[in-house]
Amino acid sequence: MFLATFTIFLLLQQAVKQAEASHAALDEEKAKQLCKLAAVLAKTPNVAAHKFSKLQSVAEAASDAATIAASAAGEASGANLSTVFKAVELVARGCAKDTTAALADLQAKALPAIINGPKTAGHIAETMWLMFQASKTTQGAGTNKYCIGRRTSATTAQTLQDLQCPPEWATDTTPLETLDGTAIDATGYKGLAPGPAKVSSSTGSTSCGFLLSGADDATKL
What we know:
Number of strands: 2
Order of helices and strands: HEHHHE
Strand order of the largest sheet: 1-2
Radius of gyration: 27 Å
Oligomer: single chain
Strand content: under 5%
Low-confidence stretches: 14-19
Main location: membrane
Membrane topology: Lipid-anchor; GPI-anchor
InterPro entries: Trypano_VSG_A_N_dom
Number of helices: 4
Keywords: Cell membrane, Glycoprotein, GPI-anchor, Lipoprotein, Membrane, Signal
Largest sheet: 2 strands, parallel
Shape: rod-shaped
Number of domains: 1
Protein name: Variant surface glycoprotein
Structural class: mainly alpha
């Protein structure tokens, strides 16, 4: 997907070079918020792995307990003791059954999140990459032409990871109990601070050929 984005960048870059940039850059702090969100969403499979592992451990423990209780019931010397072990076996098998059902339910709920979390993260990262490339002097951007930065200058980040975006290839498979609550919670993307995301004054308000101008408001979107 990055190859496709790079091709789009090359095509758009020519259009930007042919006309003066007259649109606002994305504020670097807002870019970092978006990148952090992408990094968090990319960890969705890690959370699913944690939940699956936890339920699987419970199911295995319950199954083992049922097997041990059944064996003990058969070896018990008295009827009362045998009855107790049989009761334990029934409870353990019920727990194993409930946990297996919970695993199936988790699979149905987790699969869309596992797919859409990293997919959304990829879309954000690709958009940031496109704007980041347009902000690098090595790609032909001048001091007054950039799409991520501040009022008077382009970002000094050397890589997307410097802006807190996730790497192109995910390598961390460590299970996580939950996603970063400072970035996302049950109510939405709480890590995205309210307010304009564009640079609204000075050089940055007219430095990016891809975005709206500093004077444009939400009605122009």
